[in-house]
Amino acid sequence: MKKNLKTQFLTRQYMLSRDYELYYYSDSHMANVDSHAHDYYEFYFFLEGTVSYLIEEQLYSLKAGDVVVIPPGIYHKAVIHDSEKPYSRFVFWISMDYYERIRQMSEEYFYIIRLAREKPQYVFHNDAVDFSSIQSRIFHLIEEIHWDRFGKEEKIFIGICDLFLHLSRMAYERTHPRRLKEDQNLYENIIQYIDTQLDQDLSLEYLAGKFYASKYHIAHIFKENTGISIHQYIMKKRLAACQDAILSNISITKAYLMFGFKDYSSFYRAFKKEYGISPKEYRDMKIQLQQRSPQKKENVP
């Protein structure tokens, strides 16, 4: 672990910073801290030790990789069973004002907090692989907080948003396994339909009606799976199909009409933007390459 990023544990249970505080603690021979509550959110990431967590009179056994979410006003404390063993954890405090600043951008950042407040579910278990992705984000945040580099606060804000969205996504996917399967089936069916219907209307409105799903939901799961918008995907597939048709000696005019382009000007602009050359230049270049190919073979001894 990155020893230089550790902080000496303080019994202080209030924030000095207006927005957030993040600590990496690793101690032994520690005394138990009394049960307490905060007026801010606490995220506790358990690394190692023989520890349980008491939350509102219920005791939770912890294992490495567990994440504990404590909303404001919830009484809690760590219960150390063996003070001889090292006790390591990350503790992240975030003020209610900072929380609101992020929440106003999207409720999705704090799905995990909603579970803690409403369900209530305070402890979230993670295997080694999942927790490794969480831990790397936390270390990057701690490093950014300790450095004094250009754009520091913006980088920290982006890192905090990324961490919370990552935690909330993991929590959501574990609580909605059926929805995930349904979304994956919908995505695969749409992909299959698009690939075989490039000459047809593939507008988002049409696909929403075809598959009985909202256009916003389709757009979301498509971006989630491919990293690009559904419009971009369809455009790339249509252009690739036109490329293949042109290589098969189909005229440019016939090719673009075969695969969903309504007019040459829109096809030309899309083709030039995607490949850097015009359709005619592409066709001529391929013809020249094909004509040179036999000559190269004749020169081989």
Brief overview:
By secondary structure, the protein is α+β, with helices and mostly antiparallel strands.
Brief descriptors of the model:
single chain, 301 residues, alpha+beta, Jelly Rolls, Arc Repressor Mutant, subunit A, 2 domains, 5-stranded antiparallel beta sheet, 3-stranded antiparallel beta sheet, 11 helices, 8 strands, disordered C terminus
Walk me through what this model shows.
51% of the residues lie in helices and 15% in strands. The strands form 2 sheets. A 5-stranded antiparallel β-sheet has the order 1-7-2-5-8. Strands 4-3-6 form a 3-stranded antiparallel β-sheet, with no helix packed on it. The protein is elongated. By secondary structure, it is an alpha+beta fold. The longest helix is centred in the middle third of the chain and has 24 residues, at 152-175. The chain has 11 helices and 8 strands.
Report the C-alpha radius of gyration, rounded.
28 Å
Order of helices and strands: EEEEEEEHHEHHHHHHHHH
DSSP summary: helix tally: 11
* Tally of domains: 2
Please write out the topology.
Layout: E1 20-27, E2 41-48, E3 51-55, E4 58-61, E5 67-70, E6 76-80, E7 87-94, H1 96-103, H2 111-118, E8 123-124, H3 128-146, H4 152-175, H5 177-196, H6 204-210, H7 215-226, H8 230-247, H9 252-258, H10 264-275, H11 279-298
Antiparallel strand pairs: 1-7, 2-5, 2-7, 3-4, 3-6, 5-8
Helix pairs in contact: 3-4, 5-7, 8-9
